[in-house]
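Lab manual, section 2.4: Encoding a predicted structure.

Procedure: take the sequence of the chain (783 residues), apply the prediction step described in section 2.3, and record the output as structure tokens. A sample record is shown.
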Amino acid sequence: MKNTAHNPNRSLVRIFCLSLGGLLFVYTAIAIYTLMMRPDVGAAEWAVSLVRIAFGLTLGALFCWGWLAEPLERQVRLMGTLFEADYDNLSTRSKIRAVVLVTMLSLLLELVLIRWLASVFPVFAFYKNFTMLACFLGLGAGYAVAEKQRCAPALVLPMLALFVGVITLLRYDTGGGHLIFSIGWLSTFDLPVYFLLGASFILCACICYPVGQLCGKLLHSSNSLKAYSLNLIGSILGVIALFVMSLYWLPPVIWFGVVGGMMLLFVLPRDNFLPVGLASFCALLAILAWPVQPETQRIYSPYQLLERTATSEGLMQILSGGSYYQKVYNFAEGKRGQETDADKYVRAYYEFPYNFKKPPERVAIVGSGSGNDVATALRMGASHVDAIEIDPAIAFLGQKYHPERPYDDKRVNLSINDARNFFRTADQKYDLIVYGVLDSHTALSHASNLRVDSYVYTREGIAEAFKLLKPDGVLSISFTLVNDALGFKLSKILRELPGAGKPLAVRVLYDYSKTTAFIVRKGGAVTMPNASAFAAIGFTDVSDLFSQPYPESAVPTDDWPFFYMVERAYPFTYMIALGIILLLSYFFVRRTIGFSDPIDRSYLPFFFLGSGFMLVETKAITELGLHLGGTWVVIASAIMLVLVMAYMANLIVTRTTRNLTGAAYVGLFVSLLVGYGLAVSHSDWAFGPPLVQLAMSCFVLTVPLFFAGIIFSSLVGEGRINISTAFAYNLMGALFGGVMEYNSMYFGFAFLYLLALGFYVLAWLFSQKSASLARAAHLAPAE
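Recorded output:
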């Protein structure tokens, strides 16, 4: 058998074509499925569907069976030859500038792919780090062969345009496709979902592979430590670029436009295949800018894709990632008595918490959204309403399109903030705190599987809110219970709040048969008011059901904030997904890098440093989100801080002749143990004024990464280390660390410190072994 490991770009083309062809066949299958499920299809729709099917089959066959692969491979070989010849003529200054720009491009490409896929298919919001790990795989493999194989960066834009085009077809061109991929994740053996995840994983790795190759080549243009500094500067610039785009809610056509523009301006001008890149860039922008649903307004908030549509009554309805999210109602006093039975029921649901506290003077609304709960509070006589909403775009839509204009009322204070951070810093007491029906599918960050509302429903989070109630104050939590286990958790937390009476649980049926409102009073029990009247409209008291004992280990805490999991376990669906990652990673490495060369043990410390770094970064991001608010600004700042810590560490190493590795390992181990001790003690160690809390939180959570950065830079500074190979091992280690992060779903996030400690110990052991071998080789007599 011919060994393709010696021609990774050829293997890359074949892998990409096979994966893309597979997705096109899935597109065809969905088109057939949609056609068969609609027996009333007219002749025109039949014709359109047959064209779709023929299109999918033809292109799928072209990509899968090699009819396009052979000519593409010839072009790739020519691309690599031409680019390499021109690359050698670059001046040193041009290469240094290119290191920063290409590193910025690599990080920005990774973050853009993560955001875009999560906005197109909700399944990627549940498996958000899938895309991140795919990018790590592609970049790491590219770094590994940077000095061994020719680089063809002109491949990136054509591959990106094809990938975006096929994913867009799957999302918008077949109505059934989105339904399958958005709901099917709930099924353990839903093959279309796993195929989408697997194919996208490989395609993202392929897109990032040439960028990794180019980065690796450019890093050799200067001293290793200087190149690493430039790499970090480029990464910081990439984070800043995405921060600015998120700040202004810019759409994907701008995200990819910046990425593609950088390729065209800084990478491909010296490549004879610039016309190919330009054509691909135009196709990419045309696909992203095409108005696939002209009747829908799309807003890309810093958290998610929001789609504004209208109900049959002309009122606003909001979708998130294509799935129903929320809608507004008009219950102005002038319309009372004119509503339909359905509207009367919805009004009763929103006004239900106010039957326990009449009239409330001060009200806090958690998850105020587009304004329904706020409008209700005003109608029920609240003198002051604090409305807390984390997503500024949802609040904006509520301000513009809610018919009762609740956010314009002078009694309302809108806070764009995380609920935990708001309650932690609040200096008011409330008569009533109302939690809207929160069910976010948005991940806290690309480096973790937490949702933005995960810390809202922990024991500590609810207790913080309860403390802000006045004597005899009432707390109301409504939740769409996809299973009763979530209700048992909420009931147990509320029952055990210090000073709380027995809670009331009522099925209110809002939007779902098991939507339940949990009511608890400070200093007394809660009883159902007007029981017969509420029973007549379908409200059911289920307090006895949820008063049953529930395992303590399954109650969400700040260390284990997985409210949506029934119990501490490794979810079977996630285990299948992780198996897919490992299998496809092996396949990708085998076909691009190959296993002909033995593993160089001198680079194993970089692998374990990458694994430990990924775990500590995840812990730092989630913990900073907990202490300072899980907003996108805090998360972006945390990522920036991590990169700045690494840059400072590298700067120290470059400016000293002393070997700091031993002291850095001691500092790393001690800081990890301190962090673990603070995490398991559940103590509120961040105290004092806000600026002091900020400084303490940032220092404690990121100082391990500072020491790890010193170790990494010290190892890179050794003359025998090839920097692109070091990055390859480091990124592969980060991929492995990302897989190991799923252990938090069983053991909690504090456990990540112990895992990281284990990886860093392995890094220390292998670095000691490598140093011993190097000294032995240096002292050995020449033959």
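Check your result against the sample. Residues 8-36 form the longest helix (29 residues).
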